[in-house]
Structure formats: structure tokens, C-alpha cells
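Hey team,

Filing this mostly as a record. A colleague (T.K.) asked me to run one chain through the structure pipeline before their review meeting, and I want the input and output archived in the tracker in case anyone asks later how it was produced. No errors, nothing strange. Just documentation.

Input sequence:
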Amino acid sequence: MQEQDSRATSYTTLASGGDFRHELEIKRSRFITVLRRAGTEEEARDLVAVLRRGFHDARHHCSAFVIGPDRSIQRSSDDGEPAGTAGIPMLEALLKRETAPGVSDLSDVSAVVVRYFGGVLLGAGGLVRAYSESVSAALDLAPLVRRSRLRICSAAVPHAAAGRLENDLRAAGTVMAETSYQDRHTVLRIAVPDHAAAIAAASDRILQLTAGSAGLTAGGREWVDEPLT
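Output structure:
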């Protein structure tokens, strides 16, 4: 589960829906990379366990993962390869991945590279390049999304004005959450980025659209996936 009080209010991660696999052959060695979205260390390590069973005859199952909005959990394993030639290059490929110009914020990702040795020694430098390139090539193909922490805010308005206000908010690009209908008014809920400036701007918009008759109350937080733009 994402930290509600993390410093980061958004980051990039894999799209939900399954594992992403890519294979490279380098000097007759097969490097099979599998990426999985993982929100906990347990989920990340589960991918290693699954692939150890699925590729039980492979020589190495090297791994790296980074977890949390602030990327506070970072682990890697060489799994028998010379120290520093597999897990760390894989981790650096995750950490240094640019998700936008000048932005490296990929997280909640577990990467495992299964290696079938082809009989040709690659040397330390060759292994570093092979494991780094394997993860980078898999990321090139994997769909990514923006994971954003949103604040759910609410405004109570008269029933007669609720429909028009909701249409105006949607037209302005506001993300609408659940609407509830009570005896005397309708409660419109909107989702805004979880920082003071965005909440203040949303409150001003509500005041303008209702001629000052409705205010905005900030509520809880939710993490949601949004398309990358």
C-alpha cells in the first residue's frame, strides 16, 4: 500500500494487468526479463519465487525492485553472478529510467532477469551491460501510468444547481468522484492533486461557479492511476 504521507504526490509505475516479458540473446546466453508491478516487498519477492519455479533449470535468477512513492525500498540480488554485475545494474536501470524529460520517478516495479548460460564468458563489464540492457529493453515495451495522490473534496449544493455545476466542472477538466444525494442538497465530490495550491484553486473555482454560495471541504486521500501525458 502506498504511503499516504509520502513526500511525493505522484510517480510513474507499470500499468496494471500482468507481467511484462522481454528476451535478449547475447553471445549465446539468454536473458529473459520479467517486470511486475509490486506495491510491497512481499509482492516483489513473489515474482522471484514464481520464476525460480518456472525456470528451475536456469543458472541465475537475478532481481531488483524499487517500491513506494518516495522509492524508499530498494533491493537487488546478483544470485550467483559476480558481485555487482547483475542486481545493481538492474536496480540502476529502474532508478535512472526517465519517464519524462529530466524526470526519473519509476517505482513499485519488480524486475527479474533469468539467465541461461550459453557457454561464452561475458566478463564483468559484459555482464553489467547485459543485465542493464535487459531491464531497459523490457521497460521500453512496458506500458506505464502516472500514479497520483489525490485529495477528495466535497461541495454541498442545492439539487437544482448540481447538474449544471457538475457539467461546468467536467468541462473545466475536473476529475469527479462519487456524487451523493441528501434530503436538502447534493454533495459533489471532486479529486484534486494533494497539495495546497491545487486545493485552493479548486475551492476558488467552486466559489466562482456558485457565486460564492458553496464552499469546498477537503477530505481523505486516494492513489489513482492516470494516463501518461
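Quick notes for T.K.: The helical segments are 41-54, 87-95, 123-141, 159-171, 196-209. DSSP finds five helices and eleven strands in the chain.
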